[in-house]
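Suppose a colleague, Dr. K., hands you the sequence of a protein chain of 272 amino acids and asks what its three-dimensional shape might be. Before reaching for any lab equipment, you can write down a predicted structure in token form. Begin with the sequence itself:
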Amino acid sequence: MAENRVSGAVEKATDSTAFERAARAGHIVSGLVHLLIAFIIIRIAFGSGGNADQSGALGTLGSSPGGKTMLWIAAVAFLAMALWRVAEAIVGPHATEPGDDDSGASKLFDRAKAAGVALVYFGFAFSAFQFARGTGQSSGQQSAGLSARLMENTAGKTLLVVAGLVIIAIGGYHVYKGVTKNFLDDLKVSGGTVITPLGIAGYTAKGLVLIGAGVLVIVASINSDPSKATGIDGAVKTLGEAPFGKFLLILAGIGIAAYGLYSFAMARYSRM
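The predicted structure, expressed as tokens, is then:
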């Protein structure tokens, strides 16, 4: 009975046009963040500094004219998207499509995925909130600090290896989603000459970067070197040190920019 009341309340909430629009704004902000990350990656390719991750993008956004206001808007939009994903975890994916069949293992996977995405967006919202208040910190430094504490014992190292494997799995899923065009199932439209290539390039590039970040976490854990466990920023900078690193960084920047542009399409056409 209580579960039915919760589901009913969630379904009523997702009937709100304002709530849906606020959640869709999360895609717009995500697109902007990925474009800023792409810009930082290109700068690194040509010898400039910067943190090629979410914290670097939010810091860049905050230092621009009107940046503080934009960060507060970003925090609200990310929070709305997180709450929408929580709703999908409760009532099933595509809450605005009541005729959608919500049975079977694939739907259970979709609910679990929605819960995971909700946690990611809650993290984004918190980061945007911190930068808006002027207390934001580098994601890479935070990751390295946490990794250093975990590496003090075997259990912590094991946890880091598991975390690295999870990141690799998420990255692999992104690559799969891009290569197979599975992302089109998330849209109200059938793709097109612009959206489909952006989705393929964006998901594949982001997936490869995540795989690199996961590998670095595992290697850092084995070698007890927390300075290497710095997330996406570390993966990008390690890529730059490889043969033809500049060329690879430019490709990565273009791919992440493609994901950012695809996020704008998601704001308009995603199934919610």
